[in-house]
Structure to design on (789 residues):
């Protein structure tokens, strides 16, 4: 019999509380920062050596010549956007990253680039009935090309097509990515981009994870990052965390909405103070687009592909409740004491997992637009619109947790 | 009730000094006094364009931040006056400061003795002297800034030491300068001062530090940990120990203060100033141990609600996440912290606590309550 885990129960009404508002008093009205001067950009090799996986935490480069380094003037980014690229996106057929390729494709198409999406597997598979794949008509109607196949046979699948840039949004290790990378190299692809994962950072007492921090040497993604840096003249690596957005293949905010709309307690492991980073996928897409359009600046760099704010797990629950206009009851528990696998019980890591997008801001001039309070309202609207709030659901693991804590659940 | 306005008649030095390297607490600075010449700092990118030398007033300057800031400004060739009540010596040689460096500083630093709460005196004495720039390091209330503004209608810049404590508590962090502030916070005087500066139309700059640390810290931040580590005691940390906070070295803050001087990009801007990375409470305990050469400490987590500590604080940090983004200062000012956390704590330890100096005696009474020991009464 599991011992009573310590728990705290917070009843939180949906009144707008202390969560952020970006409004500020007139005294602090947004004086636009003065236009940044374009300083001499450090060469990409200098940057790549800084952002290599060295054991020391690396502060950003300081040129001995100029105070401001590596901040492109706005006009530099715009000029490059005029050049149209042929981009191939190799996309996974499932999981949290699937939606990245969808947004990226649409954004590139919107900017006038040519896009092909190669989705792993078969067009007729059941997996293609789920979002974002069931919305691929949006890519096609924007003049994008969608094909299916095995990345290991990519040469055959693409029959001699050529591309300027390739994004591998599929492989988690070198076995999966090597065929794509090798083919890209041999067919003259100039720029290779890879969706890695912020999960490869070693846990730290000093958050956030910043580009250059130590990673887990045995992580599959690390092998890929190393390989592409060796064989491509122009490469960049993106390390995402969690994301929300219409077309997502994997539940994120839905996990909270499922409980909140049904008036069920939200069981959160540990203290609820764990920091995580939940981005709207459009932020990831905009970062990737900047990298394609300003390949020279992106070259040789690792980018944390995340929003520019962290949120606590409790905070995420509260924000979802506010978005839904409903109260929330958060219940904390110790997974070990309850005897459950936290990974199955809860969709986020039970620890601080918090990276910041510093390289993207400094090197690409990227700006984050994720605004969880606002974005979650839109997500909640869709949640209700598709009828998920009315769907019959079982909460077996929740019930087990709550029973061990002796928390009553309104039927 | 006018206080004695004893402005010491030390001549401000605008003479050209020979360049000399002064190893000041680990940051090497070249001294050279030239009009309109860039001063180059060999270590890192401490670029400060010292245009004309300025007549600068620091409100405060003898306790912590100002000690370092005043030295940097004097080295830059400015004429620096400290407005203090004179309780502490105007110039005290710091551990690690060379004799020649200290002699140079103490021969140049000026003193305006007074109580800044005597607003009439502040106004008259400042008006009589005239200053180009005011660094308000110890101001807490808007009313304290008024007489300064009244006295100096041609003030080029009012540089204010505010606090990240003004931000409204949030689940969604880090705090950025655009974030909501809390008009009810303990630091609302700082907010009101910022608002006053804006309203008065003066060219102002406000820096918001988080937790400041470094040698001579009078706030028991690192000292709190060092006392326990030295005594071989466990470190009691409230709740999960996962709370994330942020420390900024005082010398990095002083550098930032110098960076905004005469800097048009800093005009009417607020900047968060702190360390590059944040740290958990548990992590901070370990970092202090590492910095000071102690073994990894035993950490005891406790629930503060289960104890009555009376008026004493069982732990020196706010029991919440509290950290701010410094990217605005980095990108707009080109400033960046020189000290990483363990390195900075080692600097503090080596120059202060490790030499046997500290501000507050160790008080383990709240620790003992937590650890369940009974207090021995005589």
């Amino acid at each position: 019999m599991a011992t009573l885990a310590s728990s705290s129960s917070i009843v939180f009404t949906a009144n707008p509380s202390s969560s952020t508002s970006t409004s500020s008093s007139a005294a602090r009205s947004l004086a636009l920062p003065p236009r940044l001067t374009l300083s001499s950009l450090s060469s990409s090799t200098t940057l790549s050596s800084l952002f290599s996986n060295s054991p020391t935490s690396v502060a950003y480069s300081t040129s001995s010549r100029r105070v401001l380094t590596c901040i492109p003037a706005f006009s530099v980014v715009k000029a490059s956007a005029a050049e149209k690229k042929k981009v191939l996106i190799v996309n996974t057929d499932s999981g949290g990253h699937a939606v990245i390729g969808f947004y990226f494709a649409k954004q590139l198409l919107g900017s006038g680039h040519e896009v092909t999406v190669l989705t792993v597997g078969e067009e007729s598979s059941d997996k293609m009935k789920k979002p974002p794949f069931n919305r691929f008509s949006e890519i096609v109607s924007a003049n994008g090309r969608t094909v299916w196949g095995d990345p290991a046979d990519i040469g055959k699948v693409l029959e001699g097509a050529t591309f300027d840039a390739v994004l591998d949004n599929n492989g988690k290790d070198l076995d999966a990515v090597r065929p794509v990378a090798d083919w890209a190299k041999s067919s003259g692809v100039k720029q290779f981009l890879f969706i890695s994962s912020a999960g490869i950072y070693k846990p730290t007492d000093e958050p956030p994870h910043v580009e250059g921090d130590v990673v887990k040497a045995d992580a599959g993604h690390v092998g890929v990052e190393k390989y592409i840096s060796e064989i491509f003249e122009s490469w960049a690596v993106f390390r995402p965390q969690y994301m929300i957005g219409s077309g997502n293949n994997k539940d994120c905010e839905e996990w909270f909405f499922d409980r909140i709309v049904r008036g069920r307690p939200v069981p959160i492991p540990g203290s609820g103070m764990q920091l995580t980073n939940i981005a709207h996928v459009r932020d990831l897409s905009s970062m990737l687009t900047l990298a394609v359009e300003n390949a020279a600046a992106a070259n040789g760099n690792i980018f944390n592909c995340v929003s520019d704010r962290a949120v606590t797990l409790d905070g995420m629950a509260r924000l979802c409740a506010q978005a839904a206009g409903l109260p929330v009851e958060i219940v904390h528990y110790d997974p070990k004491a309850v005897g459950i696998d936290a990974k199955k019980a809860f969709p986020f890591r039970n620890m601080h997992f918090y990276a910041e997008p510093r390289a993207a801001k400094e090197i690409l001039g990227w700006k984050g637009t994720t605004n969880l309070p606002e974005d979650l309202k839109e997500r909640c609207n869709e949640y209700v619109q598709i009828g998920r709030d009315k769907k019959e659901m079982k909460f077996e693991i929740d019930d087990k947790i709550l029973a061990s804590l002796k928390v009553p659940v309104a039927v | 009730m006018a206080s004695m306005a004893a402005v010491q008649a030390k001549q401000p030095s605008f003479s050209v000094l020979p360049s000399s390297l002064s190893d000041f607490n680990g940051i090497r600075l070249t001294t050279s006094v030239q009009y309109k010449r860039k001063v180059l700092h060999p270590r890192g990118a401490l670029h400060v364009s010292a245009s004309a030398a300025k007549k600068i007033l620091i409100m405060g300057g003898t306790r912590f931040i100002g000690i370092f800031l005043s030295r940097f400004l004097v080295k830059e060739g400015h004429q620096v006056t400290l407005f203090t009540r004179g309780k502490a010596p105007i110039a005290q040689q710091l551990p690690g400061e060379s004799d020649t460096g200290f002699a140079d500083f103490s021969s140049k630093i000026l003193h305006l003795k007074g109580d800044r709460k005597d607003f009439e005196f502040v106004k008259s004495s400042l008006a009589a002297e005239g200053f180009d720039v005011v660094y308000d390091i110890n101001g807490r209330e808007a009313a304290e800034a008024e007489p300064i503004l009244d006295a100096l209608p041609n003030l080029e810049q009012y540089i204010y030491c505010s606090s990240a404590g003004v931000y409204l508590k949030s689940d969604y962090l880090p705090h950025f300068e655009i974030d909501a502030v809390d008009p009810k916070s303990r630091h609302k005087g700082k907010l009101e001062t910022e608002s006053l500066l804006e309203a008065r139309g003066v060219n102002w700059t406000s820096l918001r530090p988080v937790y400041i640390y470094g040698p001579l810290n009078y706030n028991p931040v690192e000292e709190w940990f060092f006392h326990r580590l030295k005594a071989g005691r466990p470190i009691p940390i409230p709740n999960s120990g996962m709370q994330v906070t942020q420390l900024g070295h005082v010398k990095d803050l002083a550098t930032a203060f110098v960076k905004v001087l005469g800097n048009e990009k800093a005009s009417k801007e607020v900047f968060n100033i702190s360390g590059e990375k944040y740290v958990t409470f548990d992590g901070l305990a370990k970092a202090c141990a590492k910095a000071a050469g102690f073994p990894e400490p035993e950490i005891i987590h406790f629930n503060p609600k289960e104890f009555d500590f009376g008026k004493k604080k069982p732990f020196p940090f706010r029991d919440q996440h509290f950290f701010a983004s410094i990217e605005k200062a980095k990108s707009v000012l080109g400033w960046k912290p020189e000290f990483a956390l363990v390195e900075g704590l080692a600097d503090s330890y080596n120059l202060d606590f490790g030499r046997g100096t500290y501000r507050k005696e160790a008080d383990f009474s709240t620790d003992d309550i937590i650890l369940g020991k009974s207090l021995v009464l005589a």
In short: Chain B touches chain A through 52 residues (CB under 8 Å).
